[in-house]
Every structure is written in structure tokens, then in C-alpha cells.
Amino acid sequence: MNNQTKEIMTILQEEAAEVIVEISKCLRFGISEDNLNRLNKELGDLQLMIDLLVDEEIGVTHGKIFNAKIQKIEKLMTYSNIDFRE
User: Fold this and answer.
1) Range(s) of the domain holding residue 27
2) In angstroms, rounded to a whole number, what is the distance separating the alpha carbons of residues 17 and 14?
3) With contact defined as beta carbons under 8 Å apart, do 39 and 19 qualify?
């Protein structure tokens, strides 16, 4: 793994943690405009780092991520109460 890939993965990890923090704030204090703005910012940062990791061409691809999303939807349809029809 080269230094750029390591840096991207490190920042990706940090951004994932920041998303967790903002979700916790929404759950604890409510979905206010301020909390949503911070959550959207952190989700955007996370998405950018995912895209940069895909660009590194180490085997993480948008296609593989999409397939994993489909598998997760199928699992959630079985084991959660999330309504995917909306």
C-alpha cells in the first residue's frame, strides 16, 4: 500500500468516526437544522473519501459498493422494519 492510499484510508476512517458523532448528536438532541447541516457536511466528507479510495484502483470499486448496497437492502428488508417502498 502506497503512502497516498494510507492517507486516504486514514482520513476515511476519521470521517466515518465524525459521521458517527453527528448521528449521535441527532439522536440525543433531535434533528434540528444545525444538526442536519453538520451531518450533511460529514456525510459529504465521507463520500469524498470513498470516491478518492475508489480512484486509487486498489480493488474498491463503485460497482462492488453498489452490489454491497443491494445485499444490505435485501438483509434490511428481512431483518428490519425499514420501509423501502417510499
Assistant:
1) 3-60
2) 5
3) yes
